[in-house]
Amino acid sequence: MQSTAPKPKGPVGVTIIAIVAAAGGLLSLFGGASVLAGMSSGPFVLAIVVITFGILGLAVGAGFFTGAKRAWMAGIVTYIISIGLGIAEIVYGGQVGFIGGIIRTLAGIILPVYLMRPGPKSFFGKVSSAAKK
Hints:
The chain is mainly α. It has helices spanning 12-36, 44-66, 69-92, 94-115, 118-123, 129-132. The chain has one domain (12-122). The two termini are 32 Å apart.
């Protein structure tokens, strides 16, 4: 029988990121779907990529909320890659894509920096190099 201690409550910043990631995922799904349905303008390929990132956003948000260990790295990688998508949205996404692109680019820069801080890292079970010594 394996005894596991309850997971500590996550940092408030991680909870906020979880909510923002899930909300951004939903908005990305709706935005991409609106282009595919012809209700918005934008390149078809960009809409598919936005929908893909919407699904990733929902998954990362759920992982952040539960404190899943894999969510930490998945979030960092997803947000760094999303900088490129944000720039593409600014250039090719029309008015709605322009606003979403600015938000996505800023999130792609700010959120990985926050996730590298000691509090969020320890919540996800990542031990900082200073703690190993």
